[in-house]
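User: I'll paste a sequence; please echo it back and then give the predicted structure.

Assistant: Echoing your sequence first, then the prediction.
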Amino acid sequence: MNVLMLDLNAQLKTIEKEVKTAVNDVIHSTQYIMGPKVLTLEGQIAEYVGAKYATGVSSGTDALLISLMALGVGVGDIIITTSFSFFATAGVIARLNAIPIFIDIDSDTYNLSSTALERWFKTNKEKISRVKAIMPVHLYGQSADMDLIIEVADKFNIPVVEDAAQAIGARYSSKSGVKKAGNIGTLGCFSFFPSKNLGAMGDGGMVVTNNASIDEKLKKLRNHGAKPKYYHALIGGNFRLDPIQAAILSVKFPHLDKWHSMRQENAAYYDKNLNIRGVKKPVIAYKREYHIYNQYVISLREKRDELRKFLAENNIGTEIYYPVPFHEQECFKSLGYKSGDFPHSEYAAKNTIALPIYPELTAEMQDYVIEKIGEFYE
């Protein structure tokens, strides 16, 4: 049996005709920059997450970057974020010559630890005035503990930029009711990288907000700061969403909740049947239906890399997210962190592995994955 980490062909077979029609519509319209397809997708995403405004951009990375630009982040400003995520989370901070301050993760959810964040503010009072934003990440499709994060941010009047790149549709039981990831803080950032639950056939991203002035700024910044054309109030960049990608995403969008449900069913199957000593299954912090399972990540007591090699030899795809935490990356050496500073992040980097979880995965495929993991360890 051959079990891919992600099989996009399986998804494509169900929507190929619609996708080709949507792409042809853009081709024949000859409107290849922005246009109605982008506006349609912006409306779909804003309504879906419950936000007033949405701005389509060129990637999830640029969604984060343009959000910080809209907040005026610059030289010497502090942005507080997790020590364990995809590189873009920290990279965009450094690109603006700001200073990333890393916080360790919760050992169960792999999201930024809200208690560690609270502790930082209690022990670094002299730096608080320089904090321009807090950037939690909803990793693997499960929301971070936002109530305490928002409480800390509100206490010091600090904006919250949600990195919801992996979490479109994930929900969180906040004190003020159930909310969707990306619509809890000041801005929410999404990625449409092909491996995401709502994935384009190339790069794409989206920023949502409920603040009209921030939204206006975002829309200027994505187009070189111009409004109207050739009149530049700001210095922005070329962060526009490709209308072909927007058209493809609008075709996929009506299927999104069904795909979430299929991933949740696959996760439940693993949870029921993956019972192997030394294997820690993902922890559900809220409810299963609130977790969209962009990834199904297990933690292994030992021999993670050896297991991955064994599974590959048996035609099972896996991935390691992420092998090096931010504080141990060479490019951040100047920040003065050292190994041992964030033990939960370091443990996750060395001991976790993602298993196939895509919607079209069959029970037979999952049984094979479970069987081979058991064979390796037992």
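The CA atoms of residues 189 and 207 lie 5 Å apart. The longest helix spans residues 8-29.
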